[in-house]
Each structure stands twice: as C-alpha cells, then as structure tokens.
Amino acid sequence: MAPSRDNLSAVLHKARDLRLEQKELPEPGPQDVVIRIHKVGICGSDVYYWHRGRTARFVVQSPMVLGHEAAGVVETVGSQVTHLRPGDRVAIEPGVPCRLCPICKAGRYNVCPAVRFCATPPVDGTLTRLYRHPADFCYKLPDHVSLEEGALLEPLTVAVYGCQRAGVGLGSRVLVCGAGPIGVVSLLTARALAAARVCVTDISPSRLEFATGQGADGTVLIDGASEEELAGRVVAALGGPPTAILECCGAAPSVRMALQAAAPRAKLAFVGRGPPDMDLPMVTIAAKELELNGVFRYANCYPLALDLVASGRVQLGPLVTHRFTLEESESAFQAALDGRGIKIMISVHD
Ligand code: NAD
Ligand code: ZN
C-alpha cells in the first residue's frame, strides 16, 4: 500500500474554534512509530478544551490537535524499534514521561513533572490521520481485540489505577460515585477484581440504569436527600459500609457522603476532578482512619487493562453509544457536551 499523504487533523485554535487542517506528515525518530489512527474516544477534558479553551490547570494558547483515547495501525517504525512492525494494531498510552528523573525511576511516571500528555497544551493529540509516538508507549492488540476497544483502554486504565489506589480486591464492598464513562469502567474493573458488591451513585436516573445493565449490584440516586440519608442508602445497597471508594464525579457533597458511608480504614481514590478546594469532615477521616488517595491518570496499568479486555473479563463494547467520522468532529464534541449517551467514538480511518 502506498504511504498516505493525507494528514487531516482536528485542530483547536481557541474555544469553539475547531478546524480540520492538514498537518505535516510525521517521520518516526529511531524509537518511535508512526500510527495510522483509526479510533479516538472523546473524553471530558477534550470537551472542556473545545468548549472553553481550557481545563482547570491548562489553557490552549496555540493551535493544538485534540484527542488522547486512541488506537490504530502501525504504518512505519523507527530504526531501533524491535517489538512492533508495520501492520500491527496498537493502543496508544498517551502520557510520555522523561524516564530519567527519580520519580520515573521509582515507577511513578504519571507524576513525572516533565510528562507530556496528548492534547494537554501544548502537546498535540491523536485526532489526526497519522500520529507519531514512542514505540514503548504503544501496546500491540491481539487479533480479537477491536480498535475501538483499543481506544477505550485509556479510560479503562484510569479505572484500573483507581481500583489500585482504592485497594479494590477480593471481597471488597465498592462504592463508585458517578456513572459517567469513568464510573462505569470502574464498576466493570471492580467486578473483574472480584469485589463482593458494587454500588454506583449518580444524579441521573438514566446513567444509573446503564450502570445496572453493566452489573452494578445496587444504585443510589442522588436526589436531594441529606448526606446522612444517602450514606445510609449506600450502606444498605452494599450490605455494609464501603471498604473501597472510587470517587468519579468530583462533587464535594458526593465526597462528603462517601466519607460518611465509609467503613473504618476504607480507602478513597479521588478520580473525579471537582472544585480546587472543598470542606471535608476531618474528624470522620481521623476517627475512621480513612485513606484518601489522589489519582493522576495512571502508571504501569496499560498491560493490565489490555489483559482484562483480551481475557473477556471486561467488555467495553456496550460503552460506545455514538459514532462520528473525523470530518464530523464538531458534532461529536457537541454530542459529548450535551451529555448524549456514554462514550462517543470518532472514526479517523474505518
Ligand atoms: P462525566 O461527567 O461523564 O461523569 C460524571 C458523572 O457524575 C455524571 O454522570 C454526573 O451526572 C455524575 N454526578 C454529578 N454530580 C454528582 C453527585 N453529586 N453524585 C454522584 N454523581 C454525580 O465524566 P467522566 O468522563 O465519567 O469522568 C469522571 C470524572 O473523572 C471527571 O471529573 C473527570 O475529569 C475525571 N477524570 C479524572 C482522571 C484522573 O486522572 N484523575 C482521568 C479521567 C477522568
Ligand atoms: Zn520523569
């Protein structure tokens, strides 16, 4: 097949100014691969950049290609790449650290101060026909794992790391706050890790219905009842207080309710991004010796997430509720902003 000259890309210039433009054709460095991108899932952060030109910490100051949940087919490989070859189907881990600092050497590369993450300003993302990436941050997909599933490994990896940070394991009673894509993959992961029961909360009945369809043992609708009352409903749904909590919405009342419901010594993983500051019940945290763990993306979890999918223990297919082409990117972002469905997928190549 002749190499493609088309590198149409979805480039955000500023809030609400997304343009389809041809970008330079990427050439691989010695340790890189160039990937023909097939599928890119839309994440909340992409929608924030598109809608507002920023997230809490990062501002789009120069044109940037959006997208970071991606999979595709290797087109060319650099001279030193030995584990991938043209034609391999791969999932892309979008955050590449410096690899040299003490934090990277300790294996915590997600919090490397020099990490470069796709579609986090000023780094270009993956909504582009041809994309260059370090080969060791690409994971070869087995034949039976689809490219859509490959793209969905990114949010699944957030859940795998979140479950590690919340200590989810055999027999855990798990509370997942928020039934968006991240909450749902957290539910799926907790079940795969042999949690005893999983309860999911949300303010949206339709999202809770979806979580029930994905195997939630119980759900609690956040309906204006007091935090005490809601915590009681969570404990009843789980048959006891949660031992592991994945906070996947970021709302302060949700965090407080979860801490109130928590079992002594429970661990809470802060996945959701909420306000920069919040009031928390410090006496409860101290008296129950609760552990509050931040979550910043993930480290060393892509292979685990891929194994969950390849072994059939997690099925991601039902999460994709809407599909668009690269040329329809603007409509895809609008659909995501409107909160339609669960996961919106863009096809860059079929
Ligand atoms: P989403 O917005 O689609 O889902 C959030 C869900 O929380 C929604 O269904 C919403 O109805 C629900 N919600 C709102 N208020 C609530 C409340 N008080 N109680 C319970 N549920 C409530 O977002 P998502 O894509 O599923 O991501 C979830 C969160 O995780 C976001 O805040 C996102 O920024 C964050 N995130 C963090 C990381 C990380 O590295 N820590 C990575 C990816 C996403
Ligand atoms: Zn580093």
TrEMBL record:
Domain Enoyl reductase (ER), chain residue ranges per copy: 15-346
GO terms for MF: L-iditol 2-dehydrogenase (NAD+) activity; zinc ion binding
Keywords assigned by UniProt, alphabetized: Metal-binding, NAD, Oxidoreductase, Zinc
Origin superkingdom: Eukaryota
GO BP: any one term: sorbitol catabolic process
Keyword 4Fe-4S included in the entry's annotation: no
PROSITE patterns recorded: ADH_ZINC
Alphabetized SUPFAM superfamilies for the sequence: GroES-like (SSF50129), NAD(P)-binding Rossmann-fold domains (SSF51735)
CDD domains: sorbitol_DH
SMART domains: PKS_ER
Stored Pfam families: ADH_N, ADH_zinc_N
InterPro entries xrefs: ADH-like_C, ADH-like_N, ADH_Zn_CS, ER, GroES-like_sf, NAD(P)-bd_dom_sf, SDH-like
Cofactor(s) annotated in UniProt: Zn(2+)
Recorded family membership: Belongs to the zinc-containing alcohol dehydrogenase family.
Protein name per the record: Sorbitol dehydrogenase
Organism expressing this protein natively: Amphibalanus amphitrite (Striped barnacle)
Gene for this chain: Sord_0
